[in-house]
Specification:
mainly alpha
C-alpha cells in the first residue's frame, strides 16, 4: 500500500512509532536522571509518548517534537514529585513513620547519589544544563524560570554537590 492510499489513522501510528524509535532512549535517559528510578522513568516516557501522540497532528514543525517531548517528560516528573510530596505530607500527619527496609544492594556511584540528594528543581536544572547540554536560556525555558533563576539553582546545586562529594571531584 502506498503512502497516498493510507488513511490518517494508519499514518499517525507509523509516525509515532518512528518518533518513538528516534527519541525514546534520550527521553528515558532524561527521565532517569530526573527521577533516579529506572521503572518510574520508563513509566514517565510511556506517558509522555501517549500525550505526545495525542498532540502529534497539532505540531506545526516536526522538528519541535523533541523539545515538546522534553518539556512533557520534565512536567511529568514535576507532577510525580508534587504528588509524592502531598502523599508523604499526608502520611506523616496520619501515622507514625514505619521502619524502612533497606535491602543490601550495590551502592550507586557517588555522583548519582549526590544528584539524588538535590531538590527536584535543582536536579532538573543540573540535568538539563549539563546532561542534556541545553543552553541557559533553553534550560530556563523548560523549567519555566528566568536565566538568572536557573543560574542561582545551578550555583546552589553545585555547592551541595561539592559538599556531598567532598570537593574531590572536578567542578561541574
Amino acid at each position: 500500500m502506498s503512502d497516498q492510499t493510507m488513511t490518517a489513522d494508519q499514518v499517525g501510528p507509523r509516525r509515532l512509532q518512528a518518533l518513538y524509535e528516534l527519541h525514546a532512549a534520550g527521553a528515558a535517559r532524561l527521565a532517569y536522571l530526573l527521577t533516579g528510578d529506572r521503572h518510574l522513568a520508563e513509566d514517565v516516557v510511556q506517558e509522555a509518548f501517549v500525550r505526545a501522540g495525542l498532540r502529534l497532528r497539532h505540531l506545526r514543525d516536526s522538528n519541535s517534537f523533541r523539545a515538546y517531548l522534553r518539556v512533557t517528560v520534565v512536567n511529568l516528573c514535576r507532577m510525580h514529585w508534587r504528588r509524592e510530596s502531598v502523599r508523604n505530607a499526608f502520611l506523616r500527619r496520619t501515622r507514625p513513620p514505619a521502619p524502612v527496609y533497606q535491602p543490601d544492594i550495590e551502592q550507586r556511584s557517588q555522583i548519582a547519589s549526590a544528584l539524588a540528594r538535590l531538590s527536584p528543581r535543582q536536579r532538573t536544572a543540573i540535568v538539563l544544563r549539563y546532561f542534556e547540554d541545553l543552553s541557559e536560556e533553553q534550560a530556563a525555558d523548560v523549567l519555566g524560570c528566568s536565566a538568572s533563576a536557573l543560574k542561582s539553582l545551578i550555583h546552589r546545586a553545585k555547592e551541595v554537590l561539592r559538599e556531598e562529594l567532598g570537593g574531590s571531584h572536578e567542578p561541574i
